[in-house]
């Protein structure tokens, strides 16, 4: 399994993708090199992804900063010691409080070992993560891509990625998650780099439209 760890890995993936796909080659001309965007794995990394679900980057970052101040050290045991009112004051929704408490309990009780997931294949990762209430395919995809650095990770259900693919490929409508899974096959084994390119493209087009 190829792991993305450095900018050199991103450059290698970008070169392979732009040589093989004219659509991504055009995207790259507009966006330039995509960012590395690696995050720590384990409880901290997964918690940050959960916090950012369905939020803008700015809103997610603000909530995360408040949580980091309220929870020290930032681990599962410390999270469970913080009362719900404090977590809600930090900006967490009731649903995310429940998801993060469920994750924290699973870690503390030994029901999931996030460290061991580094060596699991995609199917085992999905099974372990999505077995936890509140953690679905999108969260698992993003964790694999940015926390574990899987070069071929892909997020077919991500709305921004769907719009980026629609624009990049000149499609008449936004592709479904099922469509995205099919489209992404052409970009193996670097779908994680393709996603980074396309997210950059989405952000650039939004900025131009503003």
Automatic annotation (TrEMBL):
GO terms for biological process: base-excision repair, AP site formation; DNA alkylation repair. It catalyses: Hydrolysis of alkylated DNA, releasing 3-methyladenine, 3-methylguanine, 7-methylguanine and 7-methyladenine. One of its GO terms (cellular component) is protein-DNA complex. Keywords: DNA damage, DNA repair, Glycosidase, Hydrolase. Residues 51-204 form the HhH-GPD domain. One of its GO terms (molecular function) is alkylated DNA binding. InterPro entries: Alkylbase_DNA_Glycosylase/TA, DNA_glycosylase, HhH-GPD_domain. It holds the Pfam family HhH-GPD. Its EC number is 3.2.2.21. This is DNA-3-methyladenine glycosylase II.
